[in-house]
Design a protein that fits this description.
The complex is a heterodimer of chains A (about 400) and B (about 425). Chain A contains 11 helices and 12 strands. With about 400 residues, chain A is of the alpha/beta class. Chain A has a single domain (about 25-185, about 235-400), classed as Alkaline Phosphatase, subunit A. Among the domains of chain B are: about 140-260 and about 265-295, no CATH class; about 300-430, no CATH class. Chains A and B meet through α4, β7, α6 and α7 of A and α5, α7, α11, β5 and α18 of B.
Chain lengths: ~400, ~425
């Protein structure tokens, strides 16, 4: 089988995610005209979300390389200090993250340490749902950015996820983001196009699912008309990623390709304020070291390439990248040269406007909380900051009353 | 909407892979009760399924080293057998006279979701598929025992790495969370302890499972409040007997057969029917539950369900389509290939299948399928009948005015008519 492309896994094993009710009907002409009429003005902030599926081992990402407990806890899978990329006297990056280290040296990387939420859940699906809905205590069926989309004017290009399956992150109560597969969309032509457009109209008795089916056809026309010409260029060769280890918790495998498309579309002025990309394979229960290093290398290389690509555009100061995973892993290795599901982990915020440096407290290896890393920062502090500073929107409709902020922007 | 048409359409699409030409109209004449009995009664021998030739899936041996002369033929054989395996199952789904067994096997594949992407070898996946089919309407406790002895599942969740010296929690956690009890019905200590019980399993390349007693933790553990020296079998009995398992399996059935958007009501009759862990009893109860008549409970067809129902209507056999590789490419684009679930949580449901990308791929895929069908049923209808009678052909309760208008533009063009029908909201979503 050469079909190794992973699909985003969704939270849907345990609950439903609501997607768009029927949006007002737009014609191809109107939308094409709108794209010409309203390319996003330079200076409009853009958020790029990178989701690492499977639970990235934070302790082997941002490594406490002078702490003897780190080495004692995981003799099989700790890194030799001399191979690491030191950030300060206590923490160093994984040896494969040279690209992000270079950006760190340019003060473009904020590392938020010990990020999680109260009562950590070690289920991939529950924990990812908590991160994507930003509702750790209560199951809700909207994503945090979906709720933000609900507050904005309808625009199928406002928030776009790369890949053909939409992550719950972008599902709102009224509307949702759009999914864009790599390689772009090919719309029907001729009389078939007109008839497919007829099928995409909403009908009075449509159930929510049928309305969503009609909407998906409508979005096909609007997105493809606008972005199709931009995607003609061949995508770069995907990085060859390990698929043997860490391979059963979802996520896509072609981050470099996804970010390449995002860079092109940003450069072309797509009126998109939120982009979502992903990488899977971080569920490293066994033989972790090489697998995780390759994956982190892919994250680091493709993000540094992405930052390089947008440097040549007028938008280089507009972009903020946010990287997260559903949980970190246990401090102590499991004996299969891997680690089991844990709690908190680091988040990366990258961009020219980011105030580089460390934020949040590094969880202590000496004082573990129930044998695991403590959560020192709530992810909603990061989200709230991003909503205010990047999306320039009030926090309350998305996160409720949430006071915490972090000063990385 | 006509309630008999709605319920009949649901029976065909939820408990099978859609009607063949003529079956839906016949069912309307037979009445709902008769139809339910017919669709829910598995024949001793399903002639349609029996006519599908078993694939030749063999032990391909150890993977040769890179840069040897053996690696080329090995990889070719591996790909060929994997493709045969996928196409064989699709053929069974399309060819079964009674769709229930394959539909249930498909449900359980998504439940105990295991991907060949990690297993690599088709033989263990083939064996797992047979295990799932054998237990698909049997006893859930027996199924759980069998799955703990399934090589593909054990390997998928690192069971062979789980030893007394070095416990690995992957299988233990998912056994409780995703397979038997549901999330949050256990503590983190339970995860640690169940993982001790599951130590010692060893998996051979062809998927056989043995227990290495030296690697097994034989001590007693406390699990969900009970202290015992569990074995795989006694663990399966203990877990599946719990009340949480009743609710969890009922919820999973609800989510995949009734509604992925509405919450399961406490009155769902499956819970009582599943008391002795009989899957057949649960499914039978579900098929006559009042939820089957509730308009709210529509379901998006997953890509494989959509494809198989189209094959049945278009009188196509998956293995006869031109190029199995092309077929698998289309399914890959739509995000669903048998034996390749995206994660241990299985495939998504509902709106996740209704993106702009899937809209495009569905049009391409349907165009490809229609070109290979003689569209017998559609062509036998007069032009005047086509809009109205195509609902019976496809097992659709009714077309919306929107879809009628679109179909009306193509009544003289059977290919385009079929394409619009297969890509209409009423066909993609089972009302």
């Amino acid at each position: 089988m050469d079909t190794l492309t992973r699909r985003k896994f969704l939270q849907l094993t345990s609950g439903a995610v609501a997607l768009g009710v029927a949006a007002p009907l737009l014609s191809i002409k109107e939308i094409a005209q709108a794209a010409i009429d309203r390319p996003m003005p330079p200076g409009t902030p853009i958020l790029v979300i990178v989701t690492l599926y499977g639970g990235n081992d934070g302790l082997n990402t941002v490594i406490p390389y002078t702490d003897p407990i780190y080495f004692a806890s995981r003799p099989d899978i700790s890194y030799k200090p001399e191979t690491l990329l030191p950030l300060d006297s206590e923490l160093a990056l994984n040896p494969s993250m040279k690209g992000i280290k270079a950006l760190w040296d340019q003060k473009k990387v904020a590392i938020v340490r010990g990020v999680g939420y109260p009562n950590p859940d070690r289920s991939h699906f529950s924990s990812m749902a908590k991160w994507q809905t930003a509702s750790p205590a209560k199951n809700v069926n909207t994503g945090w950015l979906g709720r933000w989309i609900d507050t904005q004017a309808e625009d199928p290009m406002l928030a776009i996820s790369l890949g053909s399956v939409l992550p719950p992150l972008l599902a709102g109560a009224k509307r949702s983001g759009s999914a864009l597969p790599l390689g772009g969309l090919v719309i029907p032509k001729g009389s078939l196009a007109a008839e497919c457009l007829m099928l995409s109209k909403s009908s009075k008795n449509d159930s929510k699912l049928m309305a969503a089916a009609a909407t998906s056809m409508r979005n096909l026309f609007s997105i493809s008309t606008n972005v199709q010409p931009l995607l003609k260029k061949p995508a770069p060769t995907p990085i060859d990623l390990p698929t043997i280890n860490g391979g059963n918790a979802g996520g896509d495998s072609n981050l470099a390709q996804q970010l390449d498309v995002v860079a092109k579309l940003i450069a072309a002025g797509s009126p998109t304020k939120v982009w979502s990309v992903s990488l899977g394979g971080f569920d490293t229960h066994a033989n972790e070291a090489n697998a995780q290093a390759e994956l982190l290398g892919a994250v680091s290389d493709s993000l540094s390439r992405f930052m390089g690509q947008i440097k040549t555009t007028t938008r280089s100061n507009d972009i903020t990248v946010m990287v997260y995973s559903e949980f970190g892993r246990r401090v102590v290795g499991n004996g299969s040269q891997g680690t089991d599901h844990g709690t908190s982990g680091p988040m990366f915020i990258i961009g020219n406007s980011v105030k580089g440096g460390f934020y949040g407290e590094q969880p202590s290896l000496k004082n573990l909380y129930k044998d695991d890393l403590a959560v020192t920062t709530d992810f909603r502090d990061v989200y709230a900051t991003v909503i205010e500073k990047v999306l320039k929107s009030p926090v309350e409709p998305t996160l409720g009353k949430w006071a915490g902020r972090i000063n990385f922007l | 909407m006509n309630s008999q048409r709605l319920e009949t359409s649901r029976l065909f699409n939820r408990f099978g892979f859609g009607p063949r030409p003529g079956e839906y109209a016949q069912a309307l004449m037979d009445g709902t009760t008769q139809t339910r009995i017919k669709l829910l009664t598995v024949p001793l021998v399903d002639m349609g399924a029996a006519a599908v030739k078993e694939p030749e899936i063999t032990d391909l041996g150890k993977r040769p080293e890179l840069n040897t002369t053996e690696i080329g033929p090995f990889v070719v054989a591996l790909r060929y057998q994997t493709q045969q395996l996928i196409i064989w199952w699709l053929d069974r789904m399309a060819a079964s006279d009674n769709g229930l067994t394959e539909k249930m096997t498909w449900f359980w594949h998504g439940h105990w979701a295991t991907s060949i992407e990690k297993i690599k070898h088709p033989l263990p996946m083939y064996k797992q598929n047979k295990t799932l089919r054998a237990h698909s309407l049997g006893n859930f406790t027996d199924m759980t025992k069998a799955m703990l002895n399934d090589g593909a599942l054990q390997f998928w969740l690192d069971g062979q790495e789980n030893t007394i010296k070095a416990p690995n929690e992957n299988l233990g956690r998912e056994l409780m969370e995703l397979f038997v009890l549901g999330v949050n019905h256990y503590t983190e200590d339970d995860v640690k302890n169940i993982s001790r019980v599951l130590t010692g399993y060893q998996v051979s390349r062809n998927g056989d499972v043995a227990i290495n007693q030296n690697r097994r933790d034989k001590g007693s553990v406390t699990l969900l409040g009970q202290t015992s020296s569990f074995t795989g079998d006694s663990l399966s009995e203990f877990l599946t007997a719990r009340d949480e398992a009743t609710t969890f399996i009922a919820e999973r059935l609800w989510y995949r057969f009734i509604s992925s958007t509405q919450a399961m009501p406490s009155s769902f009759t499956v819970k009582n029917a599943f008391a002795d862990r009989s899957i057949a009893a649960a499914v039978t109860a579900m098929s006559s539950d009042s939820a089957m008549r509730d308009k709210k409970n529509d379901m998006a067809k997953a890509p494989v369900e959509w494809f198989i129902s189209a094959c049945r209507a278009l009188e196509l056999t998956p293995s006869n389509l031109k190029s199995s590789a092309q077929l698998i490419k289309y399914l890959t684009k739509l995000g669903q290939v048998p034996f390749l679930p995206p994660s241990v949580g299985g495939w998504p449901a509902g709106e996740a299948w209704l993106s702009s990308a899937t809209a495009q791929y569905r049009i391409e895929f349907a165009t490809w399928l229609i070109a290979q069908s003689n569209l017998r049923v559609l062509k036998e209808l007069t032009v005047e009948q086509r809009i109205e009678k195509s609902t019976d052909w496809l097992g659709v309760a009714e077309w919306s005015p929107r879809t009628q208008a679109a179909l009306g533009t193509s009544i003289n063009n059977p290919q385009q008519f079929a394409l619009l029908a297969l890509c209409s909201p009423e066909y993609i979503v089972n009302a």
